[in-house]
Amino acid sequence: MMQGQGANVLSLHLRGWSVSGRAVLGEIALSLGPGETVALVGPSGIGKTSLLRIIAGLEPGYDGQCTVSGRLAMVFQEPTLLPWKTLTQNLCLTARCSEREAETWLARVGLAGRGADVPGQLSLGQQRRLSLARAFAAEPALLLLDEPFVSLDPALADEMMSVFETLREGSGVATLLVTHVEAEAKRLSDRVIRLAGSPARIVG
User: How many helices (H) and strands (E) does the chain have?
Assistant: First the structure.
């Protein structure tokens, strides 16, 4: 899955992060190279999503340094789409692509001909497809995925993972994937790291 060498896309050196005086994350060192996919696993509530949000710049107040080389895109557990905009507009406005490029991305995720629809006309699986298309259309150097296949039945989750693998191929994007499904982590990643303890640290 790794696609070449070069300087790290992500370099994180976290000394700690607390919420209301409670230490949630401890000392964590993490780096990703170009084209590398790393899965982050651990018990529910351990701090996996919080770590992604720190990397994305959505959680201030942490102690440490985080450097991302290039553009960053994030796919949340729940699709964060613009419900009053069409699928095409959701892509164009957020990924800054043309309408023709948006049509191409919709086709790549199985939503060809749906550009004039709005997100409310899509199933959850289709909304997740649109979220993936939007993330990849932004041509990020680093992609953060927060359990993007959760709440899908096994067949649909497998289909969505295949869509992700196809989009990732040749993109060179570095990906940090949060998941609670071990088989998913092993299938999609070059290496698996685990959060455990209190405060949480990487243990493997």
Answer: 6, 10
Whole-model pTM: value is 0.91
Cβ contacts of 146 within 8 Å, gap of 6 or more: 48, 49, 52, 74, 75, 76, 77, 178
Helix (H) or strand (E) holding 156: helix 154-168
Give the domain ranges of the chain. Answer: 1-71+140-204, 81-138
Does the pLDDT value for residue 91 go beyond 90? yes
59: how many CB neighbours lie within 10 A of its CB?
Answer: 17
- Whole-angstrom distance, CA of residue 114 vs CA of residue 126: 10
Say yes or no to pLDDT of 21 above 90: no
The residues near 128 (Cβ < 8 Å, ≥ 6 apart) are 75, 79, 148, 149, 152, 160
Strands 201-202 and 191-196: antiparallel
Res 2: pLDDT: 44
Token pair belonging to 81? 């789409």
CATH architecture of residue range(s) 1-71+140-204: 3-Layer(aba) Sandwich (3.40)
Amino acid at 59: E
